User: Fold these one by one.
Assistant:
Number 1:
Amino acid sequence: MTPQLIHSMLLVLGASVIGSFGAVFLKFGSAKVTRNPLSFLNPQLGLGVTLYLGSSVFYFLGIRGGQLSILYPLVSLGYIWTLLWARIFFKESLTRRKLMGLGLILIGVVLVGMGAS
Amino acid sequence: MSAIAASHAQEAAAARRQSILLVFLCTISGAAGQILGKIGMTHFTPNLFAIVTNVPLIGGYALYGLNTLLMVLALRKGELSMLYPIIALTYVWVTLLSYTLLGETPNLFKNCGIALIVIGVAVLGSGGKA
């Protein structure tokens, strides 16, 4: 592993964590959205959007160096973090159906990454 | 089941379908955004004028905005743990668009990967409790 690759991996790993918190705050903020367009201007949504954009910057910088077969599986860790936060913060149930669907998706993302480089 | 409970169940199913549709649209705008971002990043220079006149990059970020808006509307009535993994459909569109627009060559890994993602999303979205 070259230092360049480790650098990219850390950026993408960071993007996955930041993005998953972005999703959590988007969910918190979405509860405050009403028919009034001004209701979009709430602090939770602001934070969610900021984290989301921040994570995309990390992501773009990370994948710029290539090596997608290693980086894509790291990106998909974001799905696992998000599932954990959904369980912790929103008390959502993790049904067998959700875990099966997510498992298939994760394998799919890893395969796409393997094919990409 | 009483009539009231039945109508509640119907409402929940309708809300669920609407959330899934919104996330579905979100993956399409996300894929278009990623392709534009990819094109924009190929002639990226770290200078403010170059960045604000980089049309694909700006377009990509505009689509990210749309993408986020759709996601928020979807999350309003849907479960994060069901909706968020559906975003992986973005990979499917990006791969297909890369084949057609960027001239990338298809291979078995990518094709199997996008097929599994589609099946996974179908499993997530198929019925069950709302």
Note: Helices of chain B lie at 3-42, 48-52, 55-77, 80-83, 89-100, 108-125.
Number 2:
Amino acid sequence: MNWVELIAGVLLLAGAAFVLVSAIGVVRFPDVYMRMHAATKAGTLGAGLMLGAASIVFGELGITVRSFVVFFFLLLTAPVAAHVLGRAAYYAGVPRWERTKLDELAGRYDEADGTPGELGRPVQRGDDIPYP
Amino acid sequence: MILFEGPWTFLSVATLVTMVAVAVSILVASLRVMRGPSLPDRVVALDLVGLLAVSVISVVAIATQQPVLLDAAIALALIAFLSTVAFARFIEWQGENAE
């Protein structure tokens, strides 16, 4: 067994573990925001580890660059997609988990058109909107 | 699958285990796509399925020794991102009756 095969196999198994954990999290977590947390971070890391394994196995410059481009693209787009989707879910009124303690956005944004609320700026602690 | 035709090595066993794990992950994630109570739940699970498809492509590229398949991974990642953003705009536009 040579070192390249060992490292690539370990990367593949680690990626499989992260991907499996993220899929289980998407099914088991109680509301859409927590599911987004599981899918975005653990899933991106798992796919990135598998792409790293591919770049190690082939060991050519062009393939390494290609798989790193894919990973960089995933790192770039996953937070953007999660933010857009979370914002859409919040304004669509998707219910949160019943034991959620804190909703810092409540009352600070105009729910009709998605613009900042009457204060028109990020609200600090101690402003006139009561902290939930 | 070229990797599985020779004798068993650590890499081929790891590739096989990874294929099984990713397949199980796709099944579990599509359970959420079918069951998800709201449309954003389904879109989150579909985004994860797209990410898992990228992982499948890289694992199959290792198993068949065909690095050309990684080009398909680039296109698939781009399409998954664009479809997620389009779905998010649709949900925001539909409001509460999106289902």
Note: Chain A touches chain B through 56 residues (CB under 8 Å).
Number 3:
Amino acid sequence: MDSGAARTRKNDVKTAKLGREVQARLGQQLRAIYDDVVNQGVPDRFADLLKQLDNKDNKDRS
Amino acid sequence: MPIDDAVRQQILDTIPSLRAFAISLCGNVDRADDLVQETMVRAIANIDSFQPGTNMSAWLFTILRNHFRSEYRKRRREVEDADGHYADSLKSQPEQHGHIEFGEFREALAQLPSDQREALILVGASGFSYEEAAHICDCAVGTIKSRVNRARNRLAEILHVRDGEDFGPDEQTRAVLAGSK
């Protein structure tokens, strides 16, 4: 905080610090897009692949 | 050698976010799933180099990112047009996912340089610390901080957002989030 003046001088317009509100909004949208995929869970092909790769488990289905 | 149960579970637990990261890297769901598959094959083949107790998701993200980068170095044309490809492929995604509300944000995200987009996703969406993101991207912590900062500023610029002002998609995002389970 005490280096605020130096930081302001260092940062040009493009890298000026965004307000918390804007950062929160951008973060919220970013996570919404990301979580859209995350919420799809583990597609069967990957669960099956892991079984295949793990030769300890030879069951076809659980 | 059979994979330890705990390790197998950690791999499974990481797959959803690994897919989300892969899609953000290459902008194409099918290609992203191939990347995840190739990452799993590599991870299992090198499972002995994973140290139990360390961060499995950071390890898998690192493998995926390195694989993606080396693949793209091989395919020069795609390297040169990586961002263009990405922007084009993203435009078709809102319809696929039925979330047309995010179209504007997706397009803004697609306009970022790939290193900035990658840093922003790792820190802002995947939930990695700056240190973990720096490890995954094999660069200095300060570099990650700078990329994330530039990415946020660029997004705000593209989307014309400032403190105290509404920006449309956010209202819709809230509505979608409120309406979803």
Note: The interface with chain B takes residues 14-23, 25-43, 45-47, 49-50, 53-57 of chain A (CB under 8 Å).
Number 4:
Amino acid sequence: MSEPDKKPLARSPIAPALPVRVVDGWEVSAARSAAPLTLTDVTPLAKVSVKASARGPAETTIGVRFGRARRIDAGDLVVGSGPGEWLVIGGIGSAPAMTEHWRATTAGAGELVTVLDLTHGRAMLRLTGAHAADALSTICAIDLRDSVTPDGTAFRSSMAALVTDVVRDDVGGVRSYLLHCERSSGQYLFDAVLQAGAAFGVEVCGLTT
Amino acid sequence: MMLLPCPWCGPRNVTEFAYRGENIARPDPNTADKATWRDYLYYRSNRAGWEREGWFHRAGCRQFFSIERNRTTNETRGVGTPDGAGDAAHSGDSR
């Protein structure tokens, strides 16, 4: 919910494109773009880490295996980001509820499961457009063709020499990637992706809710 | 560019991995003498040819695994399975 008159409680590590507005306590860019390739800082989205043993009973409970991403009923995106490691991405401000939900869901898994809210410790970008893979291919060695990494694929690799979680999460049939990294590296990754997408006409677009 | 086959992620650029060294069995601290400990801590075979080594996929799945690598040609074979089956050194100390 937009709150233009309120001061923000939280800021992304990425400097927002002007003008800015406040959404659920987060300062976000209000810039809009109709370019065919857009880069959006989606750091305010809730990010919850779930960790258990690799191929343990929690994997059956969670229902998403390593290397895949799937939306669940609540609309949250569950990403199998590593063996026994998941990243759950939800709406702004939903992290406390998500954390409680996944603690309760995995409580009966029969093994130790750690659920942690990472929202303020990480940065997240979304690159959307038909040429998104072409742009990312200049800074990432992974084969991004549909035959290898279709919609719903997740992997962690080096992107512009930075360890980055990459999730193929198409929006309305348009190719789109979520890029997730440590908060301190957010501005660097944002600039690197902007530079990579320059040849394809990338523009910055503010977060829409 | 050298590719290393991660048992979880598949072939990746070797720059994504951290090298842990050749796999050496850890001596029993109750029975090992000083010479055995010295050999374990400081001596490596460094032979040309095939050697079983430990690697850590730091920029990927963040899992340890072992693999045979030819130190002359950088060919690889016998990668440990993700579960460590048939790979006695998978979870052990590879120093």
Note: The CA atoms of residues 34 and 40 of chain B lie 10 Å apart.
